[in-house]
Every structure is written in C-alpha cells, then in structure tokens.
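Handout, page 2. Input:
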Amino acid sequence: MINRRSTVTALVGIGVAGLAAGCLSSNSGGSTSNGSAAGGPGKTTVEVMYGLGPDTEPGFKADVSAWAAQNKITVKFTKAASWDTEIRTRVQGGNAPDVGLFPQPGLMCDLAKQKKLIPYDDATVATDKETLVPGFVEAGTCADGKVYGLPNEVSVKSILWTDAPAFKAAGYQAPKTLDDLLTLTAKIKADGKTPWCIAAESGAATGWPITDWIEDLVLRFAGPDNYDKWVKGQLKFNSPEIKPAWEYFQKIAFGEGYVRGGTKSIVATNFQTGGNALFTQPPGCYLFKQATFVANKGGFPDAVISKLDTETAPIAFPAKTATDNPVLVGGDIAAAFNNDPNTLKLRNFIASKENGTQQAKNGAFSPHKTADVSLLPNKTLQTIASDVLYKATAARFDGSDAMPAKVGAGTFWTEPVKWLSGQQDLNTTLDNIDASFPKTGS
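Output:
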C-alpha cells in the first residue's frame, strides 16, 4: 500500500483549454460513450479521473496539460477523494470517466472482466515494454491475457532508510543480502542500540504497512512467479512457499530489543512519522523500512527533508542473494473506459516514456528505464531511481492491492495486528487470512 491512504482531498474538475482534433486507431471495436466510433474525430473533452496525492498531482496535471495543448485536446481533471467508491459509483451509474488511474490492479481487472475497459493494442504494449521496468506490463494484464493498464508513475517500496551521519559513525555497512540484514540487526543490538523502527498505525487502515514488509519478503523468498500465484490465491499464506517471508519478519519484529518500543508498539506507531526517531540524538533506531513517499512533507522532519542528501542514506532492501534485485512498487495504472480516439490517445500518452517530466521534478519516478533521473529533485531520489528501480531484475506492484478487498484491505491488515499485539500466534494469523480468501480467487 502507498501513502494515498493518508490523503483525503476534495473532488475537483478542472478543464485545460484546447480544441478538438486528432485521432488514433485501435484494435478495439465498438463505439464510445458519446457515440463516436474509434475511427471518428474524437471527443472535444476527455476526462481523466485519479486519486493522486498532493505530491504527484501537480506534476501530472502539468504534464498532461502540456500534451493537451500540443494536441489541441481539452482535458478535464477529476480528483477522487475515495477512488474505489467513486469509480465504482460512476461505472455503475453509466457515467465512467474516459481515462482512469487505478492504484489497484485488482479493481481494474474486475472492471475489465465486466467489459467496462478497453485493452491496449499490441503495438503500444510492444513499444512501452521496450523501456518499462520488467514486470510492469504483467501488472496491467488481466485474466483474459489482455493488457488493460500501464503505469503513469511509481513509488519504490523496497527501501531501508538510515540517518547517514549516525550510520556511518557507528561503522555500519549496507547489507547486500537478507542474511546480512539479520547480521547487521544483531550487531546494532549487541552495540547496545535499537536496530529498528517499525510502524503500522494508520487509523482505520492500521496494519497495511506490514503488507509491504511481507510482499517484499515474498518476492525475495518465493520469487516473482510464486508471488503472482500468491496474489491470485493460488498459493496460501501458510504454504511452504509463502510462510518463510513471515518467519523472517518475525525474527526482526519479535526479536528481543530489535524494535523501538517493543513488538506491541508497532501497531501504535504512525506509518508516516514512525521513522523520525532515526534522526534524534542519540538515534532512537538505525533502520526504517518505508516507501519513498516518507521523504515528502508529512513524513520525515522538514529539517531532514531540506537536507535529504546529507541527512539520509537509503539502502535497497536486500535480496536473498547479492546478484538479485527484486523491487516492490506502488503506483497508478492508466486505463481507458471507451475507445474514442482522443481517449486512447490520452491514455497512451500517460503510459508512455514521453510522460512524467514535471512529475519527476516533484519527486515521482517514471516506470520507464530511459527516464532522465537528473530531473528528480535530489541525489537521494536519483540514486534510488538509477540504482534500485531501473536495475530491478523483477518488479511487482503491491500485492494486497490486487487481492480481493476482503483480504488485501481486510484480513491482511487486521490479522497481523492481532499477531503483533500478542493475541495469536503466526500459524493462527496465516490460517485466518487463508480462510478469508474467496474460493473463486484460487
């Protein structure tokens, strides 16, 4: 899960000036919601709906606005305060937007199954795949084998944050493997210090940050193919392939003296500010796992963010072996609700390597390896892009977002909270999640 869960914003609609023109052929048949055929002149106004946060939205609107002006198309921007609820309501009411940015591939594929979305044509997929990080095309592919969504931008979740001066002064080295990470954890503890800050409090959504931990570890222990099977419900949480990820996390989360405040404090510590103890004197912890959004306002202290390159030293969450580099990401996937030429033209631009210039300046990562990393606002993010994201051997989107909501936004949050709070053991936790998985998901 990503920081959108902490974002509550008003629904807005803003038009970008322009005149209608242009067309784009597609393999998809049928007519559009306003009656024009795929080969016709196209809509005069194309609506894009999204739930982007305040750090991503300005850059997205700037990129799309510039494209719209060049193509003489008017774009209406609609921001959803509650994406799931609002997009379902609009689709059910026969008033879907033209283009939607889905933070959940699972919901997108649900609508694709209902024939509410238009797949990408093969040529566009082939072109984008040349530059996309491995795994991103698969993330937008639904059960029928067609690609319905490709990413606009992504955040990187596979990151460990440190206080750079304190980490260096203590003589600690960045771990290259998961075994190295356990060794480092034990060393920090042996030095009389607290290795970890772990934070899972998020109001009504408390527990979701643990899903990021587990997803990263499943990707490493089980591998990308088994990760995909797990997300689809084809591998159980308590299976031999998936359980080792939980057992590894257990070594850290339940390790005596390993977590600031102890194991039970995890579910009471806010996910955005829970790593701020890295920067106290003396440090309250030395390692904090969180996605890149934590380096924005509302996460780390302002004084740290203003000097991010010298105050922090982010580390790639290590793999099982030093030669591997799986990366977990969050992001928003562009999909089309009709095959109007200008709808498809806008959708295809959003997913293309040409998009993202202004978003990068605001700190958002392009999913395309060819992106100019120098546009990112600081060396820290530039390094994460070039050395982590764009060197990924396999990338996967947040798995809980693709699982049935009863699990991905339900028991996958709540059962680990009970476990970390001491109310039940690990096997009970995993069995309870498995029992909640809809049978149709297997």
